[in-house]
């Protein structure tokens, strides 16, 4: 299943900075006619609207606020591609005193937020012919790092939900992409201490639309991610992407 973003309408959560901003700009570069910048505060998208004019429409969307997601979906009824980029990260091991509270915070945005977005926009994508839904997961979805244990757990869960969406949305013609960046040069990456090993957000944006165009489910976006993806490839192809319904019946 392939999909060309040219002349289509795209929605990007967390579009005001970092990876989200790069995704918005890449969508426009590839010929999207409109991009909804879905942000927690509308003012944070002012510079994007000023730069791109009516090609960018700011809508309020907070992954922690279910009502804001349903309202955004009512506004963006013409959307063909949804990229759920927004997420949160806290540095926490599994044995810190507030680890459970940290995990609850990350799960609410990174997992429950994903489900809320999928529930709100899947019917719209179906009505508009299927389109594509891309979820920003992480290399942390398949590899846990001790200092980021709770974040990794939330991203493993979001990856699991994304696999479920791939199957659930297939019948309506929606192509689902699971995006797995490594450390990226963003405010979140700086706060997490990734420093010099972080890659450009532009790599992520380009890889997402390449995966959509080529009909791929897994999207490993940068050198570190591609190294992990290469090691993971056999399991991905033979288990995650395989049709195992007959063997389970």
From TrEMBL:
Residues 8-187 form the Ketoreductase domain. GO terms for molecular function: L-iditol 2-dehydrogenase (NAD+) activity. The keyword Oxidoreductase applies. The keyword Oxidoreductase applies. Its EC number is 1.1.1.14. Keywords: Oxidoreductase. InterPro entries: KR_dom, NAD(P)-bd_dom_sf, Sc_DH/Rdtase_CS, SDR_fam. SUPFAM superfamilies: NAD(P)-binding Rossmann-fold domains. It is an enzyme of class 1 (oxidoreductase). Belongs to the short-chain dehydrogenases/reductases (SDR) family. This is Sorbitol dehydrogenase. The lineage of its organism: Bacteria, Pseudomonadati, Planctomycetota, Planctomycetia, Pirellulales.
